[in-house]
Amino acid sequence: MGETIDTAHPSAKLYEKDRSRSLPPLLEESSLSFLNAGSRQVSLSMEISERLHLPQQQQQQQQQHPSSHPLAWSSNSSTSTDTSEEPALENGHRLFSRNALRTRSGATKCELAKVLNRQTCFHEILKQKDEIIEDLDEKLGSKTINHDTYDSKRRMSTVSKGNEERIRVLQNQNRFLNEEVRRLAKLRGQEHEKIKIQEGKVRSLEADIEVWKLEYISLIQSSIRFTGTDTMDDAELSLFGGDRHKHRILSLLEEARKINPSLPTYEHLASGEVHVDSYGFKHHFSDDGLLLHYLCQELSQHFLCQASSYEKHQKNWLLYLKNKSKNLMANKKELKALVRAGIPDTHRKQMWRTFVLAQVEDIVQEKGAHYFRSLCSAAPDSPLAARYRKQISLDLMRTMPSNVKFSTPGSKGIMDLQDILLAFCIHNPQVGYCQGMNFLVAMALLFMDAQDAFWTLVAVTERYHSPSYFDHNLLGAQADQMVLHDLMVEKLPELAKHLDAIDIEISTVTLNWFLAIFFDAVPFQ
Amino acid sequence: MSNSRRNSGTRPGAAGGRIQQAKLVLLGDQGVGKSSLALRFVRGQFPEHSEATVGAAFLTQTILVQGQSLKFDIWDTAGQERYHSLAPMYYRGAQAAVVVYDINNANTFNRAISWVRELRQQTAVNTVIVLAGNKADLASEHRAVPTEDARVFAEETGLIFAECSAKSGLAVNEMFMMIAHKIVGKHASPNSSQGVQLTGGEEASSSGCKC
């Protein structure tokens, strides 16, 4: 059956194709008309399109019919009513339904037209409303602007007059104040200058006072004398002028202690207690004169350190150390001047170390960094060390016994001292141990560690002094005494003559100055 | 050597008498107690730990002997062997030499013997030499040198002999007094000849004041 239908109505397919082709433009048209309604009406047109959707489809169907081929339409309907048996009745029916459809389509057309009308109406209204809104917006805008400008103009005109007045006043004030500022600044500058000058004066006066204090103390110190004859036996140190000077010394000491609390108190020392100074030396006095003498000495040192010249000296040191931090030996001339004026305690370790290592650089390089330690470990079995072991051990406790570092057997200072002296005997068997070295090493140990102290000993015995200085006959040292004697004859002929006349050989006094580098010969500081 | 010529010069003393000067030298091995003996004699002290002597130390002490003041110029020398070569500088012209040994250490006695021999050879015959055995306070436990050995040696070589202790003070002052008596006795007779020396000494000291 299906076959027959297909063959019987070959145009049906054509129609179908036609319809499918003709439909899109229609739809487009309608949808375009909706879209044209404008963006502000999208929601509305959507609504409408929904409502129109159904009638449109119906309309489409109706529109097709008249344009389509009658045959095709009948064949089409025959397919749907294929089973009908009475064609006449069918025709009547058909006519009727066509009429009905026509009326219906007319009604729908009317409705569509109405809806379209309404739509355009809405469009119009919306358009008008938009225009009104726009208009109102514009009006509102212009009004506010008008209002503003007008207002400000009015205000300006009134305010500006007042302002000009005020500006004039303020400008006047400003001018006046500026002048005042200038005047005051000038005065201030002048005052500043005056203060500077005054401060300078105060400083110099203060420095003067320090110098006077120092001189006063030195004077008192020198007036603490042995009473009686020119001999030392059973003489006591006493201070001339009685208690007056003593009280003065004590008050100066109190004052100094505020700056340097490490200074001893009189009461502390007078009660027989031991005072340990900053280098570790113990001081103990049974005699009041000696005690005051010591206090004067400490005070002198304190005032010296307070003096402006010393402050400057320290600044120079700091400056030098900062500038030459890479190579401290860079400027020998400047360094020499600085060292001659004294190395401050804070830099002594560093400077000594630098000097010593510069002297023995080649030996250190040849022997290696662990040379000292290896010598120490070799010492117990070394015959070279054994030769001097007894002599050294005899002197260990006889080296700076008044210093806390070396006052107890077995203490680190004593052990270091022994290590270094024994190590040196192995290092330099030709020289070995010579009394005096113990003091050199102890002095070095006060400021440096054992290894550096060892190198100090090497530097002193092998570099600073000639190698024969400490040999078995102390030839070098004795030769130096001859040189000193000759120098004295040349430079200080009177003294040389005098010493000659009273038959005093200068070397009896000076030899140990040379050997132990003035240890014990000059005050420690 | 004209050792005693200059150093025995006399000076007017504070008490109106004369002060005679005498040079005394302490010799002996390292650590026998030379410095301690000197300190005991001069100050009457004995520090538990004294410092080793480098080169030499100088001390003075004035004592009254036979109504006369005697000032000792004491040269306390370093004991270590290698300072030996310096010793002549100190004992040259000395009127007295104290050779010290440690009675608890035989080696130091041997060293003392060699010192005595050297002194006998190098100094004037009238030089007073004392053999002093120090550290007698330890002798009961540690003695190494019998008193007799030392006494015999001293008698043979004409020395004053004493065993003493710087620590306890035993026999120290007595020893120095003995020396003083010998020196003063020696110079008692040729007193007139010393007058020449005296003026020389004064001139020297007055010129010294310019310094």
TrEMBL record, chain A:
PROSITE patterns: TBC_RABGAP. GO terms for molecular function: GTPase activator activity; small GTPase binding. Keywords: Coiled coil. Residues 160-215 form a coiled coil. The keyword Coiled coil applies. SMART domains: TBC (SM00164). It comes from the Eukaryota. InterPro entries: Rab-GAP-TBC_dom, Rab-GAP_TBC_sf, Rab_GAP_TBC_domain. SUPFAM superfamilies: Ypt/Rab-GAP domain of gyp1p. This is Rab-GAP TBC domain-containing protein.
Automatic annotation (TrEMBL), chain B:
Pfam families: Ras (PF00071). Keywords: Nucleotide-binding. GO terms for molecular function: GTP binding; GTPase activity. Signal peptide: none annotated. Residues 188-211 are annotated as: Disordered. InterPro entries: P-loop_NTPase, Small_GTP-bd, Small_GTPase. SMART domains: RAB (SM00175), RAN (SM00176), RAS (SM00173), RHO (SM00174). CDD domains: Rab5_related (cd01860). Belongs to the small GTPase superfamily. Rab family. This is Rab5.
